[in-house]
Amino acid sequence: xxxxxxxxxxxxxxxxxxxxxxxxxxxxxxxxxxxxxxxxxxxxxxxxxxxxxxxxxxxxxxxxxxxxxxxxxxxxxxxxxxxxxxxxxxxxxxxxxxxxxxxxxxxxxxxxxxxxxxxxxxxxxxxxxxxxxxxxxxxxxxxxxxxxxxxxxxxxxxxxxxxxxxxxxxxxxxxxxxxxxxxxxxxxxxxxxxxxxxxxxxxxxxxxxxxxxxxxxxxxxxxxxxxxxxxxxxxxxxxxxxxxxxxxxxxxxxxxxxxxxxxxxxxxxxxxxxxxxxxxxxxxxxxxxxxxxxxxxxxxxxxxxxxxxxxxxxxxxxxxxxxxxxxxxxxxxxxxxxxxxxxxxxxxxxxxxxxxxxxxxxxxxxxxxxxxxxxxxxxxxxxxxxxxxxxxxxxxxxxxxxxxxxxxxxxxxxxxxxxxxxxxxxxxxxxxxxxxxxxxxxxxxxxxxxxxxxxxxxxxxxxxxxxxxxxxxxxxxxxxxxxxxxxxxxxxxxxxxxxxxxxxxxxxxxxxxxxxxxxxxxxxxxxxxxxxxxxxxxxxxxxxxxxxxxxxxxxxxxxxxxxxxxxxxxxxxxxxxxxxxxxxxxxxxxxxxxxxxxxxxxxxxxxxxxxxxxxxxxxxxxxxxxxxxxxxxxxxxxxxxxxxxxxxxxxxxxxxxxxxxxxxxxxxxxxxxxxxxxxxxxxxxxxxxxxxxxxxxxxxxxxxxxxxxxxxxxxxxxxxxxxxxxxxxxxxxxxxxxxxxxxxxxxxxxxxxxxxxxxxxxxxxxxxxxxxxxxxxxxxxxxxxxxxxxxxxxxxxxxxxxxxxxxxxxxxxxxxxxxxxxx
Length: 823
Hints:
Layout: H1 2-16, E1 28-30, E2 49-51, E3 59-60, E4 73-75, E5 83-84, E6 97-99, E7 121-123, E8 146-150, E9 155-157, E10 170-176, E11 180-183, E12 193-199, H2 206-216, E13 222-229, H3 260-266, H4 268-271, E14 277-285, H5 287-298, E15 304-312, E16 327-337, H6 344-353, E17 356-362, E18 380-382, E19 405-407, H7 416-423, E20 431-433, E21 455-457, E22 477-479, E23 500-502, E24 522-524, H8 535-540, E25 546-548, E26 554-555, H9 561-569, E27 573-574, E28 583-585, H10 601-604, H11 606-631, H12 633-652, H13 655-659, E29 664-669, H14 675-688, E30 695-697, H15 698-701, H16 708-717, E31 719-726, H17 728-732, H18 734-750, E32 755-759, H19 773-781, E33 785-786, H20 791-805, H21 813-819
Parallel strand pairs: 1-2, 2-4, 3-5, 4-6, 6-7, 7-8, 8-10, 9-11, 10-12, 12-13, 13-14, 14-15, 15-16, 16-17, 17-18, 18-19, 19-20, 20-21, 21-22, 22-23, 23-24, 24-25, 25-27, 26-28, 29-30, 29-31, 31-32, 32-33
């Protein structure tokens, strides 16, 4: 309760002082209802809003608020304050709001107000003043906008009581005159205020009442009168008994007092009044008195007439003559008619004849009007919170030709079709509000709405998807919040004019496709059940300027990326962004703001991923191609493969068995024209480096006296490998051809693979004579080694060659001497 009162007090302060609500930087201290007897000493020095209401504080000393230089608002209401030190608030130069109501202050001089130069709101009502003669301190309150006065003691009001504020233009003055005993005519007319509120004195002082009301009608354009009571025992009456009738002896009741003096006072309105806005609060009277007072109001300058909290003790027939004058607004809020049995037509007749543009009757709990007669001037009718108005209200009513706005919130409507039928003769109706009823639509049907309707509020009902089949065709604004809608139908042909659509707090699995509403500018779909707004939804909303999709259970996946980017990539204003847009799924991301959720383009785009893969493969192919071109990579690979294969075969060969019959590691066949390469490159790398090899050359190892062919065959048979150095010169040598022939024959007979072909220079196939068909066959079938001109490649070439012919040979001394006979 304390917190509620504190919040209300802060709201009043901010409204009256034309200030903003407290920001996060404001320092607010709430010590209301804390049983304090003195002002706390430990208040923060930066306090701006301080609430000390509803305590037991009796005195205010000069030092109590001396340290609070930033204080703007101080609430000391409902304490027991009797004394305040002179200039109590001289250190509070920023003080704008001060509430000292409901205390025990008796000195109206109010010297405590000295030096409070910024004060805008001051309430000192309901104290123990013996008069309302304001002191000199009030004349310095040049910024004052609101002043509340009043006393619980019997008081007098004299002409000079308000002279100290007569030069100050106020926004509102509220004076409690319930205890008034004497009044000098003209005392109120010295006030300069936009609005005057007066709690009237008792009906017992009839002359006093008339004088006060006469002045009140001539002070300001806005007047509010409280406590009009001329039926004092109404609060004692049973709900089914009129207070102005006698009943059985068991239920003795006083006769209601005559309300003539109130009626007589309102006559002044006709000729001597400047009031244009009149409000009456807390009325207790009979219906006849109310209609009599209303007659004078309709005949006056009053444009806006408001009645709040009216209790009607008796309802009897009363004639209210139709006035030619039309009021702008007539509001009755909280009307309570005590008699249970009365003629309802008496109430109907009153609202049938009055002329008013805007009629509001709320919280009456009864039917107050039916279809009015022709000639009515109603443009707005608000019958909210009456609880008895249902489907039969205004059915087939053809007289509301000027009606533009009809508000029927919180009543008993439950059939949407009946509501539409109610409007079909209202040719000017533009806005209809039937929210917070129990509306349903049982079946898909076309409803007979008026063609003029452009704004419809059906929120807080029980409507489902079928509602879209029963909507007026010219709607521009449609409110369907808080219903039971799960989806918007795919075919909608009658809402092309719609500009604003409110679908919050339903059960939508997806937001509606904007292509169904080609002119849609504002869309609210907050608090629904959709997880991933589709990209087609975003693409279809070409004219959308405002979107509210907050508080939905978003699933943070790739499908949500387009929706998140909408804030950056479009001009659409997103309500509630970013605080009300969070991930609900998966659990690992629950609570993460959508603005903080990021996935890469590669992760979410299959096309992009495919392009990257294909691009990488293409780039790799190009790199490999360049390497092949500039670094001869295929040659290296081929040579490495050959070396590996040779090593594998060498591991499988029985070297001990081979060495028994072999003398040389290799026999070299070459053309005499290539001898420089053989002797300068081949022999040094095979015989002198690494593991020395025994090489057989015809010019040093052929046995003299034997035929050349015999020597060739003998050398080939005693060598593990036969190396042929191929070049164009080799083709021209007859003996080289013989050596190749016998070596190939040896390979076939032994079923071994001991031929090694070294291509010293490229040999085009067309240069090889046909008689060398065996050479062609070998080069086509057998892998050969190419001599690289690049020195960086030659080391691999020699390693590969040595691996090919590497074998351990253990020659006898005879063999060894035989081998070296020609050296």
